[in-house]
Specification:
256 residues, alpha/beta, seven-stranded mixed beta sheet, 9 strands
Length: 256
């Protein structure tokens, strides 16, 4: 059994486990993680096929949720609060539905329990376009991405996963082939037909279309005690674009 790569901040009685989204890594949550650590022992984890965690052809939300259960057992954590962003939101939803006794409170950041239309096509093309045989410095990767990904901030986000290997060549930390091959499943709704009754917060970006008003009944079908709220002046990257409001709304919920 391989345990997810992680960073543990703080030493409080209660635990908060934070899960990043597609193509992300635990480093994306370093700054906010230190804030949560004032109140919780905060666990930042790299999901399988991301960051410094192991690679596997199975990218299902269920398998990623089971990795988190293994993680909890490894660290003797009986119960924790969970926060998941984007794909990580699907993972923590799956965990809460299958293992409700392991979850105290649940926060889902800009993700609904539904199937999404493919919306990473250009990103995937851009990533596949990178020829690491021609990459001499990290900035070369950006040149390969530019024709496909116009957004500088998205390119910078993806570039955080570029690293120098032991043989001095470069590569992505995430398992691009596995994520590319199973992308349709990653954006699908594969949640178990169950309910989670503990307090749950769906926190969307006010300028994002990931959590729509018409998703409310769907959310309450799985999570009958869910609240739905929005972070102002933020798109899908709400925790990065308005971290102060994201922190306040999430902490207000956790401390209720």
């Amino acid at each position: 059994m391989e345990i997810l790569h992680n960073k543990i901040i703080g030493d409080k009685p209660n635990h908060l486990i934070i899960v990043h989204g597609l193509f992300g890594q635990l480093d994306n949550w370093n700054t906010l993680g230190k804030k949560y650590a004032e109140h919780y022992t905060t666990h930042l984890v790299d999901l399988r096929n991301h960051g410094r965690s192991f690679h596997d052809a199975d990218t299902s939300h269920k398998s990623m949720a089971l990795d988190l259960i293994d993680y909890m057992e490894h660290y003797n954590i009986e119960k924790a609060c969970f926060m998941g962003h984007s794909m990580g939101g699907k993972v923590v939803m799956s965990l809460a539905l299958d293992f409700p006794d392991k979850v105290d409170k649940l926060i889902v950041a800009d993700m609904a329990p539904k199937t999404y239309e493919p919306h990473h096509n250009e990103i995937l093309k851009g990533l596949k376009n990178v020829d690491f045989d021609q990459v001499k410095v990290r900035s070369d990767v950006d040149e390969f991405l530019k024709p496909y990904i116009k957004s500088y901030s998205i390119r910078q986000f993806l570039m955080k996963s570029v690293y120098r290997k032991k043989d001095e060549t470069y590569g992505f930390r995430f398992n691009l082939n596995a994520l590319y091959d199973t992308y349709g499943s990653i954006i699908a709704n594969n949640l178990p037909d169950k309910q989670f009754f503990n307090p749950t917060l769906f926190l969307g970006g006010a300028n994002s279309d990931y959590i729509l008003p018409e998703d409310k009944d769907l959310i309450l079908g799985y999570f009958p005690n869910a609240e739905i709220d929005y972070v102002s002046n933020a798109t899908h990257w709400l925790h990065a674009e308005n971290p102060a409001e994201f922190l306040k709304k999430s902490m207000d919920f956790l401390e209720k």
